[in-house]
Protein: Helix-turn-helix domain-containing protein
Amino acid sequence: MSKVPPKTVGLATAPSGTWVQTERAAHERWAKLIGSHPKAAALMHVIVGNMGRHNALVASVPNLQRMMGCSRNTALRAINVLKEQNWIEVRQLGGVGTTNAYIVNDRVAWTGSRDGIRYSLFSAAVLVSDDEQPDKAEIGAQPPLERVPALYPGDRQLPTGNGLDPPTQPPLVGLEPDLPAQVKEPHGPHD
Structure:
């Protein structure tokens, strides 16, 4: 059995589509950012290129630094520049740690609907790395997960096989059903 080589960095959920929209004014600002803070501009490209349809990306600092090919301090400085200049909003996940949600200013770039990003309410693509996982040696060797069939709008279930007989229960002695009655039986002298 051949083992599939694990990916080192990849999205746990695919971003919606392959297109990202931007404003011309944002491109002009981005060009200036490249001149003044090239690593911050590069990080902005990494985040925008991987964000989900609600303009957010969840990633660890080590993953971002690997994607940028820089040191931890350089990645942290780039994040701070982007925060200070209102390119992104950063929301910490959990009490401590290095994983955050990076929410892109929707006046810069967007993939979903244009209505504003809500403070601390977002959906995000998650950027994960094999070497951050506790079971990294087993990745790719696990049995497949159970697949639960789902119906989507417009789908119809197609029955297959003989199926099961309808459930039945034998009547209790003395309480047998007398329905359906075919003929009305007389109960007295006036019937």
